[in-house]
Design a protein that fits this description.
Elements: E1 4-5, E2 12-13, E3 27-30, E4 35-38, E5 46-48, E6 51-55, H1 59-62, E7 67-68, E8 88-90, H2 99-120, E9 125-128, E10 131-134, E11 136-140, E12 143-144, E13 150-151, E14 156-158, E15 161-165, H3 171-181, H4 188-206, H5 211-218, H6 225-235, H7 241-244, H8 254-277, E16 285-287, E17 294-296, H9 311-331, H10 344-358, H11 360-363
Parallel strand pairs: 8-11, 11-15
Antiparallel strand pairs: 1-2, 3-4, 5-6, 6-7, 9-10, 12-13, 14-15, 16-17
């Protein structure tokens, strides 16, 4: 995430802000241009590059600060839902207590997802074997059935449709699930990044002619998925999973390995962009020369990690940054911010994701958020 300033007064503002706290100007974000605009004080209208823009229709309900060009967005209420909100096909039942707040938190995380999709110029549709598949989202909650049982909503992906159980928007529920699953972390943005990884497996691997490359890196995706998950939940991960997988769940099946690695890669790139924006340049200490001394080398953070094609440079910048993040977290009495160890095998898989995204324009659709 990069830094933004208020176009009206120059004060620093943030990605999700709808108003500047310094001058009270109304703010709106333009995906594609990656710019923050301020509304005209007299007309409350937004504009850039000679085009008038309007607030997303969900601005008042859930504080969505994204803007649309009226008439150019064919989705949603009178074409007034933004790129992110327009992809939600089912929203939570707003008559239920707390669901407006859950919806707002989910859409806030989804905007972060679409920020990365835009930066990578990834497609939103895939021409699969059964016709075009469009990326879309259902945000649903558990419901009581007529027999008194609870009809559970399972978070997952199927043919471009990502379903998220809205209970995950509650911190206490998410923490309970994290503990039960033995996960080092569990976040809303992590859910979105993981599930969209399945969609991009369809787009870039299955429909992009990369199955053999995928198999060489992650394993055979034709292994029975249901049986593999059942085995994982019954018997746990293999003893050496940390040597080969970014998480225990990634060891369950090659599809999950890909999705977990995909999500991790986006975490990595977005965090590097944030670090560069705030001029956080950690210096790794390396052994060298005389015993007991150390050699300090400045880490070189890429200016635009979303666009950088050189994978080793990203890794070189990432490792010392994670060490610094963990040290800062420990200094205020918290657990490790980044509880992962990236082995050569894991870095190879992350590098595969990097190369896949870098070449996405040449092997997939022509449609992206512009």
């Amino acid at each position: 995430m990069r830094r933004y300033s208020c176009p009206n007064c120059g004060n620093e503002v943030h990605f999700q802000n709808t108003q500047c706290i310094n001058c009270s100007a109304l703010l709106g974000y333009v995906p594609g241009l990656d710019r923050m605009l301020s509304a005209d004080a007299a007309t409350s209208a937004f504009g850039a590059d000679g085009e008038a823009r309007a607030a997303c229709a969900n601005r008042e309900a859930i504080s969505c600060n994204w803007l649309v060009i009226p008439g150019k967005n064919t989705h949603g209420v009178a074409g007034r839902l933004c790129t992110s909100c327009s992809r939600t096909t089912i929203i939570p039942d707003l008559s239920a207590p707390g669901n407006i707040e859950r919806w707002a938190r989910l859409e806030s995380a989804k905007r972060l997802l679409f920020y990365s999709i835009e930066k990578f110029h990834l497609p939103l549709e895939s021409a699969g074997p059964d016709g075009d598949t469009t990326l879309r989202f259902n945000l649903k909650g558990d419901k009581p059935a007529l027999d008194g049982t609870i009809k559970r909503v399972l978070t997952g992906h199927e043919n471009g449709l990502i379903t998220i159980n809205i209970a995950e928007a509650d911190d206490d529920v998410r923490e309970k699930n994290r503990t039960a699953m033995g996960e080092p972390y569990r976040t809303l943005i992590g859910h979105f990044r993981h599930e969209v990884g399945h969609f991009y497996w369809d787009c870039l691997i299955r429909d992009g002619g990369r199955n053999s490359d995928f198999t060489a890196c992650f394993g055979d995706a034709s292994v029975d998925y249901a049986a593999a998950l059942s085995n994982h939940y019954q018997n746990g991960p293999p003893a050496d999973w940390r040597n080969h997988h970014v998480s225990a769940y990634a060891s369950a099946h090659p599809w999950e390995d890909f999705a977990e690695t995909w999500a991790h890669y986006i975490h990595m790139i977005d965090a590097l962009e944030t670090a560069f924006a705030y001029n956080v340049t950690p210096q790794p200490i390396r052994a060298g020369g005389t015993a007991g001394t150390a050699v300090t080398e400045a880490a070189s953070l890429p200016e635009t990690p979303y666009k950088l094609s050189d994978w080793p440079t990203l890794v070189e910048a990432w490792i010392p940054l994670t060490v610094a993040m963990n040290a800062m977290s420990q200094s205020i009495g918290n657990h490790d911010f980044y509880p992962f160890v990236l082995t050569e095998a894991i870095l190879h898989k992350l590098g595969f994701i990097h190369d896949l995204i870098q070449t996405a324009d040449s092997i997939t659709m022509e449609k992206s958020i512009r």
